[in-house]
Amino acid sequence: MIREDMYPLVNRYIVCATARNVIERHLRKLPTERLRMMSYELGKELHELKKEMHKQQVKLAKVPPSSADFYGYTLYHKGWRSEHQVLKAIIQREVEELLEELKVKTVSKR
User: Fold this and answer.
1) pLDDT in tens, 88-103
2) Residue 98 phi, psi dihedral angles, 5° rounding
3) Do 27 and 39 form a contact (C-beta atoms < 8 A)?
4) CB neighbour list of residue 54: distance below 8 Å, 6 or more residues apart
5) H or E stretch including 73?
6) The pTM is what?
7) At a CB cut-off of 8 Å and minimum separation 6, what does 6 contact?
8) Cβ of 23: how many Cβ atoms within 10 Å?
9) If you ran DSSP here, which 8-state letter would residue 8 be given?
């Protein structure tokens, strides 16, 4: 059975992956060193999250959502399957907060 303590890990992974996609789109338009640093920081965090998910034997698959207002995904863990949907507004708010944290973090590294 999928444990409740896995959901924060999965949600953090979704937020980080979405934030990195946002940064990568900005990088294609206007490549700057700061955006590269932000992308690199997110890449490190995503790698750590993937390692943790692998250690806990959790797999994540994107599925089509039931409406345009949701992100849909399926969790797999030791033979169990669980389908979930998350409101896009919640994910977007968390992505914006994460990007603000990264902006502060990359300014201090310069």
Assistant:
1) 899 999 999 999 998 8
2) -65, -40
3) yes
4) none
5) strand 70-77
6) 0.85
7) 56, 58, 75, 77
8) 23
9) H
- Please give the Cα distance from 7 to 4 (Å, whole number): 6
Structure tokens at 46: 């995503």
Contact 59, 71 (CB under 8 A): no
Q: CA 107, CA 100: separation in Å to the nearest integer?
A: 11
Beta strands at 70-77 and 80-87: parallel, antiparallel or unpaired: antiparallel
Largest CA distance in the chain: 46
Distance, CA of 8 to CA of 5 (rounded, Å): 6
What CA–CA distance (Å, rounded) separates 58 from 50? 9
